[in-house]
Amino acid sequence: MEMSQTIEIKRASQLKAKPDPDNLGFGKIFTDHMFIMDYKEGKGWHTPRIVPYAPITLDPSAIIFHYGQEVFEGMKAYKTEDGRILLFRPEKNMQRMNQSNERLDIPAIDEEFVVKAIKTLVDVERDWVPTKPGQSLYIRPFIIATEPYLGVRPSSEYQLIVILSPVGSYYGDQMKPVKIYVEDDYVRAVKGGVGFTKTGGNYASSLRAQTKDQSRRIGL
Questions:
Q1: Active site residue 198
Q2: Which of 18, 73, 182, 220 could form a disulfide with 215 if both were Cys (CB 3.0 to 4.6 A apart)?
Q3: Which among 18, 191, 198, 212 is annotated as catalytic?
Q4: Which of 124, 161, 115 has its CA nearest to residue 9?
């Protein structure tokens, strides 16, 4: 599957103020634009575009809300001392997204085209790439099932969306070793399951163990 479509760019009429570089946090601040591409059965992936960052509107019966058919990826862009912007092996992230797509029965993406779209979006938002040590521009591509339908089957319609967020270290203190808690009761991966995929259900199923650990730490 190959795409040769032109990426339409619609720039925001009003840009956001850039955040304080000393207080970025993680995943709380988002740039001025996002990438969107649609899928329809019989038509394939189509209408790739960069548009102003804004809420999306979905039918309440969209399959994503009821059956969780979605996948996502995560990667980062970095700015070098000479002003270049670098991505670390984005083609590998797209390969993994297609592995997740296959398991969740989502149509495959053109990996090369989506890498091109991500690079185009990052270039549009190049002023958002932070420059301090430990900081980066986090890139979140995701695909959601958008068909309005209540029934257990793959969707016939999807959206691929890419959003960007300037971030610091995920854990705050990037030089401090991360502590782990080994959980025996709540698991997300079993033979034949979806534990190897990047899908929201894997992360939702881990939240109870996280809450359990937090309660244990404070003695509840």
A1: yes
A2: 220
A3: 198
A4: 124
